[in-house]
Amino acid sequence: MNEQLLAAVTQYGAPALFGIVSIAAVGLPLPITLLLIVVGSMVSQGAMDLWWALGAASAGSILGDQAGYAIGRWGGSAAVAKLSTMFGRKASLEAMEEKLREWGGPGIFATRWLLGPLGPWINLASGTAGYPWHRFLIWDVLGEVTGATLYISLGRVFSDRVIELDAVLGDLTWAIAALIVAMFLGYQLWARLRRAR
Questions:
Q1: What does the chain look like in DSSP terms, one character per residue?
Q2: What is the pTM of this model?
Q3: pLDDT tens per residue, range 118-144
Q4: How far is Cα 137 from Cα 70, in angstroms, rounded to an integer?
């Protein structure tokens, strides 16, 4: 599928990029980080305009995130369950809502670019939990613009090492996620021990 996505972006440019990231933001598992890095490489080679690439990636992601939020808000748990089976994933909506309550706006921001696989589920959970739309929109826009800028810029700088960069970023993302979980669990343990005393 990676080759087909790259071929579409190569042939159709920013409109294809916009469509692909929109669909991925709703929940279809696509390698968006790698795609944005490759787009950055295309920008460095003059095959795509930087501002069109940044605009298409940011706007497409934001539109997809807003669609996910709307599905959660107005479709409720039934729509989320149907979407989960359609995309071949099972989402624990209660677990995502709990994460949303713990993380709040910064969690929405982080799942736009750092913890990307959680993003579509946080969108749905934000809607079902009734998270205020205007706050969701602000954190969403900040996160998606940050993510598009970061990954396209990395692709521009490391144009000749795209695959290696994607592997390093994937490992780094999981390492950061593990560190966040370890810190959270450590804090929970510390709080329980303190209460027990």
A1: -HHHHHHHHHHH-HHHHHHHHHHHHHT----HHHHHHHHHHHHHTTSS-HHHHHHHHHHHHHHHHHHHHHIIIIIHHHHHHHHHHHTT----HHHHHHHHHHHHHHHHHHHHHTSGGGHHHHHHHHHHTT--HHHHHHHHHHHHHHHHHHHHHHHHHTGGGHHHHHHHHHHHHHHHHHHHHHHHHHHHHHHHHHHH-
A2: 0.79
A3: 899 899 989 988 999 999 999 999 999
A4: 12
Q: pLDDT tens across 75-134, in order? A: 887 887 776 666 555 556 777 788 788 888 999 999 998 888 889 989 998 998 899 999
Question: Are the beta carbons of 97 and 129 closer than 8 angstroms?
Answer: yes
Q: Which amino acid is at 74?
A: W
